[in-house]
Automatic annotation (TrEMBL):
UniProt KW keywords: ATP-binding, Cytoplasm, Isoprene biosynthesis, Kinase, Lipid biosynthesis, Lipid metabolism, Magnesium, Nucleotide-binding, Transferase
Subcellular location: Cytoplasm
Residues at the active site: 150 (proton acceptor)
Lineage: Archaea, Methanobacteriati, Methanobacteriota, Stenosarchaea group, Methanomicrobia
Protein's name according to its UniProt entry: Mevalonate kinase
Gene3D superfamilies, alphabetized: 3.30.230.10, GHMP kinase, C-terminal domain (3.30.70.890)
Organism: Methanothrix soehngenii (strain ATCC 5969 / DSM 3671 / JCM 10134 / NBRC 103675 / OCM 69 / GP-6) (Methanosaeta concilii)
Length: 315
């Protein structure tokens, strides 16, 4: 048996604008997906024990499905198995990361599966090869959209600056509180919506993207020097710019305002593609507990997440 795990991620700054090439900043978090690979002669079996997909199982060799759930995780795992030409295996997926919430769940499943199969089949892929292969597979399943941020963070951990290329940033851990609207989002259509807005209003959306990129570039020194009040201010500005791009929602705004007004956050913004999914808040003087209470009172699912955690590893 070979087990590998990979972390989820939070985009701190730069979502959507990064699709057009400006900088974004993200960090790996201490929620992980695990892939467990075992030999299973004559068959290829995928089982997921994901938050929303508990008990799902797909037997690729017979096509037998043992649950009616539309299991997105199996699409990614099947793509990895196909890419690596893996047969005679059982792959089990467990995940702490809610799917379609902007926390990098699919990338961590892909990276953990690639790493576990790498160990099981003795492929000797380097970390760089795992990141590149995982990015290609995720992009293929997501039909060509997407930046390499999620797979890079799931592989390398820590923090990544993403622009034309990825750059690992050496920054201290940072505690965030995540508020989940409980509404899944569709990154593909939200990215398309923003890119169409840019085509219609290049003179308006272009400068918004530039401003978002500038925020991302300002963030790293603030984290390094622990200037958290300033960092929170940038989160608030970034959230406003994302609202201007049309990817906010009432549910996200309710959590953002609850965090700022009741939870004492130093700053709050949506994270990821928007629409539904998650927001993040930087704890203030009252600490993370006040934020957790405020977000739960506003009907969000809330949890603390440490940014800057370890990347993929064999367990
Ligand atoms: O899929 P999410 O919610 O993590 O959002 C991805 C971030 C975007 O910038 C909107 C798209 C991308 O691929 O960079």
């Amino acid at each position: 048996m070979t087990m590998a795990s990979a972390p989820g991620k939070i985009i701190l700054f730069g979502e959507h604008a990064v699709v057009s090439g400006t900088a974004a900043l993200g960090g790996a978090i201490d929620l992980r997906a695990r892939a467990i690979v075992q030999s299973l002669p004559g068959r290829i079996l995928i089982e997921t024990d994901d938050l929303s997909l508990r008990g799902f199982s797909l037997d690729l060799s017979t096509g037998e499905i043992r649950s009616a759930s539309a299991a997105y995780a199996t699409r990614y795992v099947s793509a990895v198995l196909k890419e690596l030409g893996a047969r005679d295996v059982r792959v089990m997926i467990e995940s702490d990361i809610p799917p379609a919430a902007g926390l990098g769940s699919s990338a961590s499943i892909v990276v953990a599966t690639v790493a576990a199969l790498n160990g099981h089949l003795g492929l000797e892929l380097s970390q760089k090869e795992i990141a590149a292969l995982s990015y290609r597979i995720e992009k293929e399943v997501q039909k060509g959209r997407g930046s390499p941020m999620d797979t890079a963070l799931a592989t390398y951990g820590g923090y990544q600056r993403i622009a034309d290329d990825n750059q690992r940033l050496d920054l201290p851990p940072l505690e965030m509180v995540v508020g989940y609207t409980r509404l899944p989002h569709d990154t593909f259509s939200l990215v398309e919506k923003v890119q169409l807005l840019k085509e219609r209003y290049p003179d308006l959306v272009g400068p918004i993207f530039q401003a978002i990129g500038a925020i991302s570039e300002r963030a790293a020194p603030l984290i390094r020097e622990q200037r958290l009040k300033d960092l929170g201010e940038l989160m608030d500005i970034n959230h406003g710019l994302l609202e201007a791009l049309g990817v906010g929602s009432r549910e996200l705004s309710e959590l953002v305002y609850a965090a700022r007004n009741t939870g004492g956050a130093l700053g709050a913004k949506l994270t990821g593609a928007g629409g539904g999914g998650c927001m993040i808040a930087l704890p203030g003087m009252a600490g993370k507990d006040a934020l957790l209470v405020a977000l739960r009172q506003a009907r969000g699912m809330a949890f603390a997440a440490m940014m800057g955690c370890e990347g993929v590893r064999l367990e």
